[in-house]
Amino acid sequence: MSINQENDSFYSRRKFLKSTAVAGGMSFIPGSILGIENMKITTTSSGKESGKSIIGSYGPWAANIADKPPLLSFRNSEWKDIESWRSTAKNKALELLSSPDIEGVPKVKLINKTVYDGLEIEEISWQLPYGRPTRAIVLKPEGARAPMPAILGLHDHGGKKYFGKRKITRTGDQMHPLMLDHQNEYYGGFAWANEIAKRGYVVLVHDAFAFASRRVLFEDMSEIPWGHFATTGMSDEDPEKVENILAYNKWAAEHESIMAKSLFCAGTTWPGVFLAEDQKALDVLSAREDVDSNQLGCAGLSGGGLRTVFLGGLDPRIKCAVCVGNMTTWKDFLLNKSFTHTWMTFAPLLPKYLDFPEILGLRVPLPTMTLSTNEDGLFTLSEMKKANGILQEVFDKAGAADKYKGIFYSGVHKFDAQMQKDAFNWFDKWLKD
After folding, report:
1. Residue 87 contacts by C-beta under 8 Å, 6 or more apart in sequence?
2. Which of 366, 312, 259, 291 lies closest to 140, judged by CA?
3. How far is CA 329 from CA 53, 55, 63, 69, in A?
4. Which has more pLDDT, 175 or 39?
5. Could you tell me the CA-to-CA distances from 297 to 148, 186, 328, 423 in Å, in that order?
6. Better pLDDT: 219 or 150
7. Which of 9, 203, 221, 352 has its CA 20 to 30 A from that of 322?
8. Which residues contact 90 (CB under 8 A, 6 or more apart)?
9. How confident is the model at residue 218 (pLDDT cuts 50, 70, 90)?
10. How confident is the model at residue 226 (pLDDT cuts 50, 70, 90)?
11. Is the dihedral of CA 364, 370, 374, 380 positive or negative?
12. Integer Cα distance of 314 and 311 in angstroms
């Protein structure tokens, strides 16, 4: 089958994946690439339990490597002092992520300021040393002036790189229909960044690397010999047309592996770039006069949960972190679920030193919450529960059992109204009291 033919069936296969709960709010790798439209997706058993894996007979061998506690796991008996462990493990994680160096606090440009639904809303931008300007939205209660606690809202992936900050915000009654559907499907019909701002927070949501204002544009691309399967109509005067956006998202899904390999060749990683750019956004947020820079939090669903793991685990300015719909083990990715996840998840060699939940655990004893769903097809339930147990063990050993809370809900990949309520209450408990 040619690449063009494969992509003609992209959306019918994506529909299948969504029906089996695989194509959730994070990036999934298109079924058109993998040819898995007839594959049965299970969510309750691990590769070890079934005797099969996504890498076939090599699974048991690779799993045996992963079965041992990573070298820098705080669960290892030789680690007694939390600060000594954190320093060593954090330095190794930062080395392997190899984030680009971005010096200084970006200069912020105010684009527009409005009031909507009881919130003051600013549209702002800043220029990093590379790429096009980052655009962001800041929300806070109307009339609020005193320094307030603040949240960095981290948007999801969802296979929708045309959009970024708009996935979790609303700035008016008129919304793009694709974003209205997105919020209805994954967020219970709410723009969660708006909802937590109403509770007395300054909230900043920025476009992540390779999304929305930071996305790769066709006019900046050199020619790749794969044809022009996704460019039809993209020169239209209205880039917001649904068919143009779908065409872009389709192309961007295919381009993701190229971006990841190119980042590796540059000596960096995708999660490393995420971390660097999210830290710059945190610089912008904490520098505001209306923000209490000692009371900062971050949260996000799926791809936003992934970014929470790295930012919350590696930047101590985040005093409270909530990871939603992105908590499992490296072994789960290895045996069962790497094919359902974006290239943005992986940093070579990092699993040798820390299991996935232990990256977030680097923040112990700072308050930390994970929210997961029992029918989330992006992960294996037994491994999600194992990850929850690992985090609890880390916090228990550090004498901070009350600072960690992991909750499981019924349903598929989501951050719905009840989950938002629990997350917001957790922020209130640790950032307001």
Report:
1. none
2. 291
3. 15, 17, 12, 11
4. 175
5. 12, 21, 22, 11
6. 150
7. 352
8. 314, 362
9. confident
10. low
11. negative
12. 5
DSSP code, position 225: T
Instruction: Using DSSP bridges, classify how beta strands 134-141 and 119-126 pair: parallel, antiparallel or unpaired.
Output: antiparallel
391 touches 356 (CB < 8 A): no
Encode pLDDT of 59-111 as tens digits.
999 988 877 789 999 999 999 999 999 999 999 999 999 999 999 999 999 99
Which run of H or E residues covers position 300? Answer: strand 291-301
| The pLDDT of residue 430 is above 60 | yes
Residue 382 pairs with which residues in a beta bridge? none
Mean pLDDT score across all residues of the chain? 88
Note the pLDDT tens digit of each residue in 11-28: 333 443 343 333 333 444
Closest CA to 344 of 307, 298, 387, 379: 307
Sequence-ordered alpha helix ranges (H) in 217-315: 242-265, 270-286, 303-314
Strand spans (E) along 22-154: 108-116, 119-126, 134-141, 148-153
Please state the domain extents for the chain.
1-433
What kind and span of H or E run contains 373?
strand 368-373
**CATH architecture under which domain 1-433 falls:** 3-Layer(aba) Sandwich (3.40)
- From the number of C-beta atoms within 10 Å of its C-beta (0-12, 13-18, 19+), residue 144 rates as middle
Cα(127)–Cα(135) distance, integer angstroms:
9
Cβ neighbours for 245, distance < 8 A, ≥ 6 positions apart = 160, 162, 163, 178, 239
- Paired with 140 in beta bridges are 120
Which of the four pLDDT bands, split at 50, 70 and 90, describes residue 228? low
Tokens 């094919």 map to which residue?
339
pLDDT cut 90: percent of the chain above it: 78
Dig out the tokens for 178 from the structure: 């694709």
Taking each continuous run of H as one helix and of E as one strand, the counts in the chain are: 15, 9
The alpha carbon of 258 is separated from its chain's Cα centroid by a whole number of angstroms, namely 20
Which structure tokens are listed for 365?
């004893």
Rounded Cα distance, 255 and 203, in Å: 31
Q: Going by C-beta distance under 8 Å and a sequence separation of 6 or more, which residues neighbour residue 100?
A: 130, 268, 272, 273, 276
pLDDT of 5 > 60? The answer is no
Q: What do you get for the CA distance between the two ends of the chain, in Å?
A: 60
pLDDT of amino acid 182: 98
| pLDDT value of residue 238 | 81
SS3 64: helix
Q: Which two tokens stand for residue 122?
A: 């600013």
Q: What is the pLDDT of residues 175-189, one digit of tens each?
A: 999 999 999 999 999
